[in-house]
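Notebook entry, cofactor series.
This is the third protein in the set we're modelling with a bound small molecule. For this one the ligand is zinc ion. I'm keeping the input format identical across the series so the outputs can be compared line by line later. Sequence and SMILES below, as received.
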Amino acid sequence: MHRTALRRPSHPTRTTAGRRLLIAGSITVAAALGLTACGTASGALQPSGSTSSTSSTSSTDSTSAAASGTATGAPQQPTGTGAATSAPTPGSDAAGSGTGHAAPPAGSTPHQAATPATSGRTQAAGTPAPPAPPAPPAHPGSATKVISSTASGGRTVALTFDDGPGPATGQILDLLAQYHVKATFCEIGQNAAANPALVKRVLAEGHRLCDHSVHHPQPFEKLPHDKAVYEIGAARDMIVKAGGPGTRIDWFRAPGGGFNADNEHIAADLGMDSLGWSVDPRDWSRPGVPAIVSAVQKQLKPGGVILMHDGGGDRSQSVAALKQLLPWLVSQGYTFDFPAA
Ligand SMILES: [Zn+2]
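Returned structure with ligand:
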């Protein structure tokens, strides 16, 4: 909570013209494909091997950001051209299976010194050179940490909302205002670009922002380095542009929790910490309001970070669940915080 604004991206200004082309193309492709939210219809939970949960609170049984959505197929490529009109709502394919929640396994997954996913380097093929040593990782050194606890610890909780801004964002903001709660919004770049007024409202009401990639490709941890750079960096630019001058983005959350050492370092280079969660009610899958509420009630421990969604399709269950959860959290003595950084 007492975060100082000490981190400014040291990233040099990059070429924007080319990126804009990529963005426009990406949005079109994304719209055509229909994106998945933090999970998909299959709803399988996949431990994300390279995630870590570094809890600053001793009591937090922080499950790492393990809800890796199962993407169907390869990550979308930022190819093609075309005009971006309105951003699609990811996750609309999530079946309302009503099968209830499936809480991620408890316990933390140590962050392995993961080899960065494909580094994106292109090898000069065919040159009869002596065997070269393996290419160094894009970011030498160990992986960073993925945050899954609140800044202050103690009996605090951090609410985070992913995949917006979208049609439900206003209702969620209304509820948060009613309870004087500040939350963190992990926004998809193209949605921010399509809904700048909502980004501005999020900021005006004291909430904070998190970069959730341009168009939510999954599995995010499989993206080549170049594409991860694009997804993270361009989304950041889009959200900042939507929010206006001075917009601050403290965190990056990989779609589906697909963190790896490479994307964590890309985010860090842009001044953002990697943000996981410790409580996942899988609201994106629309398991029913009681299932969402009870999952949070069962999984939450002091200092926890709750993952919910304000975008990615019909979020009426998320809104209804939040309506019950806010007074419950207050009744349990929780105060609201931002994630650690
Ligand atoms: Zn997401």
